[in-house]
Known about the structure:
Layout: E1 4-16, E2 23-25, H1 50-59, E3 63-66, H2 111-121, E4 124-129, H3 136-147, H4 153-160, E5 171-174, H5 187-208, E6 214-218, H6 223-233, E7 246-253, H7 264-275, H8 277-289, E8 298-306, H9 323-338, E9 343-349, E10 359-362, E11 365-368, H10 370-378, E12 385-392, E13 395-396, E14 405-406, E15 408-414, E16 420-426, E17 433-439, E18 449-454, E19 475-476, E20 480-482, E21 485-490, E22 494-500
Parallel strand pairs: 1-17, 2-3, 2-9, 3-4, 4-5, 5-6, 6-7, 7-8, 8-9
Antiparallel strand pairs: 1-12, 10-11, 12-15, 13-14, 15-16, 16-22, 17-21, 18-19, 18-22, 20-21
The structure holds alpha-L-arabinofuranose (AHR).
Amino acid sequence: MANARVTVHPEARIDRIEPELHGHFSEHLGRCVYDGLxxxxxxxxxxxxxxxxxxxxxxxIPVLRWPGGxxxxxxxxxDGVGSREDRPRRRxxxxxxxxxxxxxxxxxxGTDEFxxxxxxxxxxxxxxxxxxxxxxxxxxxxxxYCNYDGDTELADRRRANGHEEPYGVKYWGLGNENxxxxxxxxxxxxxxxxxxxxxxVGSMDNLMLDHDLELIACGFExxxxxxxxxxxxxxxxxxxxxxxxxxxxxxxxxxTMSIAEAGEEKYDQFLVEALEMDYHIERIASAINAVATTxxxxxxxxxxxxxHTEAVAENGLEQPGTVIDALSAAAVLDIFNHHSDVMTxxxxxxxxxxxxxxxETDGDEAxxxxxxxxxxxxxxxxxxxxxxxxxDTPSREVEHGDDDLPFVGASASVAEDGETxxxxxxxxxxxxxxxxxxxxxxxxxxxxxxxxxxFEGQDPGLEAGASxxxxxxxxxxxxxVDGDVLTVDLAPSTVAGISVE
Length: 501
Ligand code: AHR
């Protein structure tokens, strides 16, 4: 007998699920860029890692944010262009903080390498400009170097560096965590700085006519801060338009949990913490709506994911890639779908080797982590219209805030050709649950129904490595179809994707 019910309401469409909700973030930190995206050992002649490139291309990642993170607000882009032998070596203020063991930044991987990497993967670049220690001219020059097609010194420099055509970079972040590592600013101070930068970077947009830049400000998990930022941003008084297209925040969870020591109780708390993403999206949307509208200014979560006690600066923020983390990613991607009316992008931290990366490398081996499998299973949602989905589920009381852990979660979407896709999670690490999925008004009896499941029979703490990575691939899942009701048995800590054609 089913003990949980998911109801999909095809008549109640939410909005398009922007493919960018499956975006990524790569920082010059630990082994993310050097060893992850770029290496001298297994690389092709340009230094790119073909194995990582291939895994990311297969996943069709829609957007990649770079070069930070905190790194970005101490990064000067001109250090990383031109002949590699002439590029200066630097110590990054944030990730090298007085530690001799952290390698110096060689600047071997710079703007042209990053943008070429994006071209090869087939993904949209998102550059984060330095507001903390940079100036508006430097940021505007970066835009000109990347995007301008005329006959200026900067455009010619790009050509001399081997890129005749402008890159047409669309997404530009102005600052990162400027309440903290990006300059310890008050919200009012950052809003004024943001306006100043946006004036110069934004004017490049007019200059280049056919390049539609989208400018992004970095918010905070403290929502009073976001309200004050928006109030000051809106305080132009003189009817001057300023460009702000997206407001972001960062949400990491699991900071007090050690993967090595965690058990069922910790898993429950961790998942409840991950589900707080829902609250943060609602609150940041409300800060935007107090001054403007989420139609004009979208919500981005441009850093998110699990961050455990294993990930410390000394080891380049590395932690094991496990089933429990992957389960949290599924729950968060469902939340993004529910908020497709306000959300324009998200970027999981970080693509390779760092935090909740999707790909891990060791020497000349590279493999997909369990979180990669979740992104793959959720891929059919990309570009679909999200459908309102309600869930009736048992739950468990958890020692973390006031919220219980709901065992079953879900989201649904419909493609242009009418195919419905439903993802269902069983966040209960102890017991299996039988879930009925009712698609209102549909007669699934005449439809082609197919389902896949991840992590059946695998322990939540199970870690992926080079030798067992294939064991995390999806398996077929049996579905019982009765009219518009589909019934699936979900083993503990599993994720399923069901398509109805
Ligand atoms: O992703 C690691 C760090 O977390 C980023 O550099 C910073 O933006 C955040 O605090």
